[in-house]
Specification:
By secondary structure, the protein is α+β, with helices and mostly antiparallel strands. About 35% of the residues lie in helices and about 30% in strands. The chain is built from 10 helices and 13 strands. A hairpin with a 6-residue loop joins strand 11 and strand 12.
């Protein structure tokens, strides 16, 4: 029979000490504002629950014009969206934080829980990768920082060691004439449902027509959130007229097939969503510049 022990640490050091004492072989997982570590061996079957609401660093939400945005992992997504710099400066993040397609089934209530949902459930990962976000990690051996992109390198869930947990996520201040968008959808492919998400971030020249940099990340249709590097190279330096915007969907579908082996309806969905995400991102860049 599994036993449960609950603690309410008030500091990162106290939380790390509790995790170290648990002597678990697996990294803790986030559920709401709780951090849960499972301990199973020949002597016991135990779930240790850490209530994170009293740890200030995990509940911090700050924006600085030079340093950018810092979001504590225990914050709920609705509370993050109430912070005006998020919607004003990082709309691609807001795109992924709102109501999702019906396949989600569960409301990922906190930032940490969403990131821990893995490739099948983390809608926030593609936008965060587009935004060059990094995760501040704390554990038994102190602090470390890792790009969100690297968190999912080669695996479906974040790469964390036993006792480690994400304290906050850090987003750089937006570059001039840059903006992004994230779109997701579910469609029916013969006998199964197909889900995909595409995040796009553009950096434009002063003419607002020439793309000088792009990041495009695929989610759900790939084993892990992955950047579509072929699409990024295709867009860089080009005038984003109708012909290029129509062609980029084909490039994305080809890139998705190479990354994941996807076919049929999944590639059609990637093509459509890429076209929509880039057009939306471009519209936001131009709207901010002329507004």
């Amino acid at each position: 029979m599994r036993e449960f022990e609950r603690f309410s640490p008030e500091s990162l050091d106290e939380a790390a000490a509790l995790l170290m004492a648990a002597d678990s072989r697996v990294a803790p997982r986030a559920e709401g504002t709780d951090l849960i570590v499972e301990v199973t061996d020949s002597r016991r079957s135990l779930s240790i629950i850490l209530d994170l609401k009293r740890i200030p660093e995990l509940n911090r939400l700050e924006y600085d014009e030079r340093q950018g945005l810092r979001i504590g992992s225990a914050l709920s997504l609705p509370s993050i969206l109430e912070f005006s710099p998020v919607r004003r400066l990082y709309p691609i993040f807001a795109d992924a934080s709102g109501p999702g397609p019906p396949d989600r089934g569960q409301d990922w209530t906190t930032l940490g829980e969403n990131l821990g949902a893995g490739a099948s459930g983390a809608d926030l990962a593609p936008p965060l990768i587009c935004l060059r976000a990094s995760a501040a990690i704390f554990g038994p051996h102190g602090w470390s920082e890792m790009a969100v992109e690297a968190l999912y390198a080669g695996v479906s869930r974040p790469v964390l060691q036993p006792g480690e947990f994400v304290v906050d996520v850090r987003l750089p201040a937006p570059l001039p004439r840059s903006n992004g968008a994230y779109v997701r959808a579910i469609s029916q492919d013969r006998t199964r449902s197909v889900v995909a998400g595409v995040g796009a971030l553009l950096v434009m020249e002063p003419d607002l027509t020439t793309c000088c940099g792009a990041r495009l990340t695929l989610g759900r249709v790939t084993p892990t959130p992955m950047r579509a590097l072929e699409v990024e190279r295709f867009l860089s330096g080009r005038l984003l007229g109708d012909a290029i915007l129509n062609e980029v969907g084909d490039v994305a579908a080809r890139n998705a097939r190479e990354l994941s082996g996807a076919s049929g309806g999944a590639l059609d969905l990637v093509k459509e969503l890429t076209h929509r995400a880039i057009r939306e991102a471009l519209g936001r860049v131009r709207g901010a510049a002329t507004g």
